[in-house]
Amino acid sequence: MATDVKVPALGESITEGTLAEWLKKPGEAVKADEPIASLETDKVSVEVPSPIAGVLTEQLVKEGDTVAVGAAIARIDEGATAGAAAPAPAVAAAEESTNPAGAGETPALKGDSTAPVAQEEEGDDHVTTLSPAVRRAVLEYHVDPTRIKGTGKDGRLTKDDVIAAAEAQKSSTPAKAGAQEAQPSGQAASPPSAPGPRPSPGDRKEERVKMSRLRQTIAKRLKDAQNTAAMLTTFNDVDMSAVIETRSRYKDLFEKKHGIRLGFMAFFVKACALAAKDVPSVNASLEGDEIVYRDYLDVSIAVSAPKGLVVPVVRNADRMSFAEIEQTIAAYGKKAKEGTLTVEEMQGGTFTISNGGVFGSLLSTPIINPPQSAVLGMHRIEERPVVKDGQIVVRPMMYLALSYDHRIIDGREAVTFLVRVKEAIEDPTRLLIDL
Predict the structure, then answer these.
(1) In terms of pLDDT, which residue wins out, 147 or 318?
(2) Residue 135 within any structural domain of the chain
(3) What is the DSSP string of 70-84?
(4) To 10 degrees, what angle do helices 322-338 and 265-278 make?
């Protein structure tokens, strides 16, 4: 009996997504609740599980297709035998229309991007699939995908794997030629393989890749923020000596007690919570002709994920301890790398902190994350000469940038907020006595 696999609910206001990758191929056995496909939405990536145990007999859509919530994307047969299923109609049709004769392709690459490619790893048979980008790279670099060990999820090939294999193949060619020349004169050398076409020095290549849904949403929201808000940025610098000294003194005890490392982000979250009490407009938002003020602080922490920037929310950050903040951020960071953040975890922030310093940024003007009204940009720490008590000394300094919506936040309020953050970071005792 065949059962349709349907697109699950993807979150509030999300009605469709893009089928990013098939995790199972036709004819392969699947377990109940085992992921068979990965969907990409405007905000997160979601895996589609199998509702029953059986065999995937048919794929109803192709990678890259847009699918609506509730739409059937595959069929699972409880009574089928693994390996007996035929290719999905959508895949077979694509193969016929794009390459009717099948000429010019290696057997491993014939057909759609979902065609299986067998790989042997440490004696075990491992089957994976080629994504469109990897497929193009394999054809472009003329490499055998069955001889490449994938470094992606579940051992799948990535474009970088293909490029690395192509480079290794090039570097091994001179060595093989030298070995042939070194053969004894009486021994027949194996005939050299015909050289492939070499690009001329003037050749230049371009690659067109469709923007992912997440990247499209990021682009739209950032542009909307620029078009809507009266955005302005104010700057300050902060001496990180006190925080660095405090962190160095207590980091071992902190990690031993709480099981998490003490980082800089917790200090800035607490400092922003303290400053927001003095300048509540920074934590407010504009809704129509009304300003919404809040007595709580939900901080969106900008995290770089493989598919783009995401901003999970640390809720009630003003009431959390240093350990709770660090544990929450660490958990979100892990989820972001794995692509398992949920929509709920990225909704409802009232203020954003973005740390470009981890990538080496010295100074930037961050963009507001609507409907929020302000975002704090942290940057790299570097030793600079500064004047202290009439003496030129070297201190670890960091530039801070506060971008804000000038429609509801005055310049005086923005500067005051940033000064409060600076004071709390340069004298962390203020965080303990709420000063």
Answers:
(1) 318
(2) yes
(3) T-EEEEEESSPPTT-
(4) 120
Closest by CA to 25, choosing from 65, 84, 107, 78, is 84
Residue 396 sits in the same domain as residue 247? yes
Nearest to 37 by CA among 83, 71, 11: 71
Domain end residue (candidates: 73, 98, 123): 98
One domain for residues 289 and 376 = yes
Task: For residue 46, list its beta bridge partners.
Answer: 39
With beta carbons less than 8 A apart as the criterion, state whether 240 and 422 touch: no
What pLDDT score was predicted for residue 22? 87
**What own/partner pairs with CB < 8 Å and gap ≥ 24 does 107-112 have?**
108/144, 108/145, 108/146, 109/135, 109/138, 109/139, 109/145, 111/87, 112/62, 112/63
Q: Which residues are catalytic?
A: 406, 410
Q: In the chain, how many domains are there?
A: 3
pLDDT digits (tens, 9 = 90+) for 313-333: 999 999 999 999 999 999 998
User: Per DSSP, what are the bridge partners of residue 16?
Assistant: 68
Contact 348, 368 (CB under 8 A): no
The b/e string for 276-307 (b: 16+ C-beta within 10 A; e otherwise) is: beebebbbbbbeeeeeeeeeebbbbbbbbbeb
Structure tokens at 216: 């499209």
How far is Cα 211 from Cα 35, in angstroms, rounded to an integer? Answer: 24
Do 258 and 327 share a structural domain?
A: yes
